[in-house]
Specification:
- It is a single chain.
- The protein has one domain.
- The longest helix has 35 residues.
- With 208 residues, it is an all-alpha fold.
- The two termini are 31 Å apart.
- Helix 2 runs parallel beside helix 8, helix 3 crosses helix 7 and helix 5 runs antiparallel to helix 9.
- It has 9 helices and no strands.
Amino acid sequence: MPEVDTVLLFFSSSLLLGLAPGPDNLFVLAQAAQRGPRAGVIVTLGLCSGLIVHTAAVALGLAALFMASAIAFTLLKFLGAAYLLFLAWQVFFTDAGAGAAEGGERLAAGQLYRRGIIMNLTNPKVSLFFLAFLPQFVDPAMGSVVLQIMLLGLLFILATILVFGAISLLAGGVGERLRRSQHSGRVLNYLSGTLFAGLALKLVLTER
């Protein structure tokens, strides 16, 4: 297993990476602001479930094989962009009407959880990032490489839950105050939809 110093360095780096603006934490921020802190936390759990898949892919060598295929990379990023545009469409044309002051349609936990999983798994950059980041903290002399990568992946997930959970609470609190006004609620929904559309465009323009 990795040494304590390595684990602490990895965990602190993971916390900082979680704070850096990116598609996942912006997605959590938008969901929490629009639908409350509960929604942000559930979406975070979905995102972290996707990270388990990415960790396993790196540990088993699948990520390197996948990243070698330009067709697979392009297909996955366009699927992700299409899903984000679908969410944007829902916000603009479904949630913009009555009920905006309450944060729009209240989604079930399962729906929010699936949103997080799909958002994470359809972003090929996550696999590429894990493929580059996790092995830097692996020492073959310390035991099984697969177990070390899985352990690091779990630590990254823990850091993600802590950071994204804090984002959910803060954004959810601000969003709750804004949703008390119907006008502010509508503005918040439109901002969320615009953010989803922007993330879709960013994903389409992503290169390997």
